[in-house]
Amino acid sequence: MTIEEVIEFLSKIQPFQELDSAALRSIAGGVIVEFYPKDTMILQQDGPPSDFLRIIKKGGVKVFIKPETDEEVIIDYRSEGDSFGLLSLIGGDRSRANVQTVEDTICYLVNKETIQRLLDSNAAFSEYFLKSFLNKYIDKTFHEMHNKSLLYGGGDKLLFTTPVGELASKNVATAPHEISIKDAAGVMSSRGISSLVLMDSEGLPSGIVTDRDLRDKVVSKGRDISESIQSIMSVPLMKVEARDYCFEALLKMLRNNIHHLLVVDEGRLKGIITNHDLMMLQGTSPISIVREIETQQTVEGLIPVSRKINRIVNLLLKEGAKASNITRIISEVNDRLVRKIIEIAERKFGEPPVPYCWIVFGSEGRKEQTFKTDQDNAIIYADIKTAKDERKVEGYFTDFSAFVRDSLVLCGFPHCPAGYMASNPKWRQPLKTWKDYFSKWINNPTPEALLFSLIFFDFRVVHGEVKLAADLRKYLETLLKGQNVFFARMAGVILGNRPPLGFFKSFIVEKSGEHKDALNLKLRGIGPIVDMARLFALEKGVRETSTLERLHALNDKHPIVMELGEEIEQAFEFITLLRIHHQIKQIEASVEPDNFINPSNLSNLERRTLKESFQLIMKVQDAIADLYRAGMVTQ
Questions:
Q1: Which of 282, 307, 340 is the last residue of a domain?
Q2: pLDDT tens for residues 594-622?
Q3: What burial class does residue 321 get, using C-beta atoms within 10 Å of its C-beta: 0-12 exposed, 13-18 middle, 19+ buried?
Q4: CATH number, residue 407
Q5: Helix 559-588 vs helix 309-318: crossing angle, to nearest 10
Q6: What range defines the domain where residue 41 resides?
Q7: β-pairing, 195-199 with 205-210?
Q8: Residue 526 and residue 569: Cα distance in Å, rounded?
């Protein structure tokens, strides 16, 4: 190492590039260089403070905290040009977090006296660390974070790390379920509460009554208040385990349109949690957007609400949520929006002439949406007997599906370019026709049939008669038994989409055009994992449609997932999160989001992890080739 090399390096990174050449030369003269092998613990939580500010010259580290009784929580990954150790360097008492190398790492070390002098004498240098660093990693322990501090990590970080039991109100108001409506209302009024849990003779919760129940079921209906409270209480009770994270409670509230959940521990009542508790925890909650959606009665009213959905992605992303948590919440909110539009359509066109269900597929069907994507939907309706009824049904759903399609466009969901929408007559059919479709695709797996299978077999119901979709799913499972040729050809499609990685582990990027020097992260990274999980799930009769749920369900069913399932999940999470980060930067820059990412814009750590993810996908593809080779046929 020469002083000139250090000066050149420091002059290109913040906040050292704010310094003049004399200051840089003075610093460089006292810099120490240290090498740390992979997995070296450089700083240890609650251990001795750092004596230096360490600046990463090459390699990468992870910064994390780890309570004695919990798994580690990643605060950040740092790579070339990033620094660490400032908090304990200035505080001088202890290290606030663990810092461990994730690859062989070289650091430049600047001593405490030099850093302190720069902080005292250089306003730009001081401002960078105080605003960009200290605010992001404010000095709070994991224990304090669990005690509801909103200073560390933000509300949504708490949403994914705080057990429900820690947030739930412990002094739950209860009453025997034999009391009258009047007496129950009296208890709620005197105690100033919005819900009352009813208990059976064995001391177990048997129901719940809320102020909404009193308004909707008693006051508005003129019900006799001397009746038993059991006549209006809600059962079965929606419950959540005390050890579950608040995120799970939020999902249950979203799915079931409720505002209270009982918190139990092995069946015994431990507390109650409300949507208000979660909103206080987060500051801003997806529940508030769902409530806005539910109150709207027109498509015009839904348009401004729909624009707020992308804000949830931004919020969750900035607070460190996993990609799968982001997509699950966004899918729940989008489902509500779609259902509300369909309900508006049903009021506009009248009661449907036959039972039907609205299904979605693609990323929506897998509950893997982030920002609004193209529409992918269809209609299954009950079989009809006469040509007259058929004309009536077709006339109704022609206008109905066109209205829903156009309304979704107004709310930010563009048309599917390939026409995979219910407004296309081919994709609004009776159950028997859908069964015919599936049978033809499986028994004669042409390239077009395989394409349809990859798209439509991820279907799930958003609205309507669930039994129709359940019948179709059951029929599909029956059809797939023993279909080795179909599975072999589907495997062939997967093997034809290799990740963009060359022989010497270099990225293969576009050579020209609009996306020159970039690669398609969705098509070549996420796509193969989605296709693998679908293949294995269809073969083993797994009904889940989301990629991670499929992998979890296959843990003890498929040999490849048994061996590599956890690594596949991690790769899927990483690539999906990388895609979300890329798209949100584009949106913030008023650029239409796409899936093309330039690897040179990634940090060293991100590039390495992406390469490892691509290598894993190739490894799984090679295993698929070996496993399905006996039945492999050319397409």
A1: 282
A2: 899 999 888 877 888 899 899 999 999 99
A3: buried
A4: 3.30.460.10
A5: 110
A6: 3-139
A7: antiparallel
A8: 11
Q: Which two tokens stand for residue 354?
A: 């036959």
Backbone angles phi, psi at 316, to 5 degrees: -65, -40
Q: Produce one character per residue of 584-594: b if its CB has 16 or more CB atoms within 10 Å, e if not.
A: beeeeeeeebb
User: What pLDDT, in 10s, does the model give residues 537-547?
Assistant: 999 999 999 99
Q: Could you tell me if 459 and 553 lie in one domain?
A: no
* Structural domain count, the chain: 4
State residue 599 phi and psi, 5-degree precision.
-55, -30
Of 228-237, 309-318, 507-516, which range is least confident? 309-318
Residue 244, token pair as written in the block: 């579950």
Q: Distance (Å, rounded) from C-alpha 588 to C-alpha 56?
A: 29
The contacts of residue 27 (CB under 8 Å, 6+ apart) are 6, 10, 16, 19, 110, 114, 118
The span from the CA of 306 to the CA of 289, in Å, is 9
With respect to residue 149, please indicate whether it lies within any of the assigned structural domains.
no
pTM greater than 0.85 (yes/no): no
Q: Are 296 and 339 in contact (CB under 8 A)?
A: no
Which amino acid, one-letter code, is at 21?
Answer: S
Neighbouring C-beta atoms of residue 206, cutoff 10 Å = 17
Please check whether residues 327 and 380 belong to one and the same domain: yes
Dump pLDDT digits (tens) for 246-284.
Answer: 777 877 877 777 777 888 887 778 888 876 676 555 545
Q: How far apart are CA 595 and CA 585, in angstroms?
A: 12
Tokens of 75: 């605060």
Does 482 map to a domain? Answer: no
Element (H, E) at 165: helix 164-167
What CATH number does residue 613 fall under?
1.20.120
Strands 52-58 and 105-111: antiparallel
